[in-house]
Amino acid sequence: MIDPKLINDCVHCGFCLPTCPTYALWGEEMDSPRGRINLMQQHVEGTPITPEMAGHLDACLGCMACVTACPSGVQYDKLIEQTRVVVEREHVREPRERAVRGIVFSLFPYPRRLRLLRPTMWLARRMAPFLTRVHPSLGAMAALAPGVEHRPRMPRVVRARGERRAVVGMLTGCVQGEFFPQVNAATARVLALEGCDVVIPRSQGCCGALSVHSGRDDQARRLARRTARAFMKAGVDTVVVNAAGCGSTMKEYGELLGAEPGFKVKDLSEFLAELGPVATRHPMPVTVAYHDACHLAHAQGVRAQPRALLSGIPELELREIPESAICCGSAGTYNLLQPEAARDLGDRKAKQVGTTGAELLVSANPGCTMQIAAAMRRAGADIRVAHTAEVLDASLRGVPL
In terms of DSSP H, where are the helices of 153-216? Predict the structure, then answer.
């Protein structure tokens, strides 16, 4: 149910408009946060969810840039999540759209199912043009597919190097764990080198983020309960997360599950900044463009920490990306369910990345990595993409990235 009190906080000032990606694309009032809040108000007052209303609400990326920009403190993040639950329960989608959503949410939150796809990634990318003709969402899935050469098996515990300073849990995730296993391996090594015992429960699964952001609250709670139980059983006080969307959702577990889970959740950069460095950084003569993942910068308010960590590496030059607050178009499953808009935003982001002249693009979210890498390929740009953890890992170990 949509909370009318949250709706009434909006004074319709318009400060959100220039920060909204879909408003930037189309200039339509109903595709801005202010316009969508007006649609929410109509529904609260008795208007049923029409296909047109659902279209405008579905088009929202949930990037939360408007939350950062709003001078009135409107909790649009809560409003859009509540509204999406209503849309999923009341709006009857067309059969093809239901089928695509069924595929997405029967696949991506389940690591074992994703694992079966890894050997077919090369074929999927080659078939992307054909699949696009079948359905744009299928083509988007294929075009975004990353190459996965090797998936190292993560141990249950990675011991601290030198004096132990902390004991933490680590989320491996679904997309991160299966498509970017090297990021998890690098994360564990960085934490260990900085004096942490890292506990990696085997029984953890999807954190529920993709489902939360798409209004599938029953699935979200089921997945969240399993992951919370795994870390509570492990007995850790802090869980470190290296995927922005996952961290954002896990920080809201108290509200999602109706009770605090018994552990704190920290983004990797946030945790390392608070812990303070002890391990030696080796020089890395490289120019880096850092991309702000929306659910890290806007939802979690973590902006300075990753920049400070990267700037602490000798000889690394950090460059800012213009329009850094505008979403790249990934937004969880958005680039699968709204592929045309996502492609436009991805191309816009790739163009801005290109203006930096950087050799390396660094992101802190697997969806952003896939989205921007695909856009850079379309633009014919030659730039490497890495996670913050991978850059830190290479510097700490003194090895090439």
Answer: 175-179, 181-193, 209-212
Distance of CA 398 to the CA centre of its chain: 29
pLDDT in tens, 186-228: 999 999 999 999 999 988 989 999 999 999 999 999 999 999 9
Backbone angles phi, psi at 159, to 5 degrees: -80, 150
Name the region of 258 (left: φ>0; alpha: ψ -120 to 50; beta: rest).
left
Question: Which tokens is 387 given?
Answer: 């996670």
Amino acid, res. 52:
E
Contact between residue 26 and residue 345 where contact means Cβ atoms under 8 Å apart: no
Q: Are 194 and 201 in contact (CB under 8 A)?
A: no
Angle at 136 between CA 133 and CA 141, to 5 degrees: 110
358 and 288 in contact (C-beta within 8 Å)? yes
Domains of the chain (ranges, CATH numbers): 4-90 (1.10.1060.10), 286-397 (3.40.50.10700)
Q: How far apart are CA 187 and CA 181, in angstroms?
A: 10
Say what the pTM is. 0.91
Task: Give 105-129 pLDDT, tens digit per residue.
Answer: 998 888 888 887 777 776 777 777 7
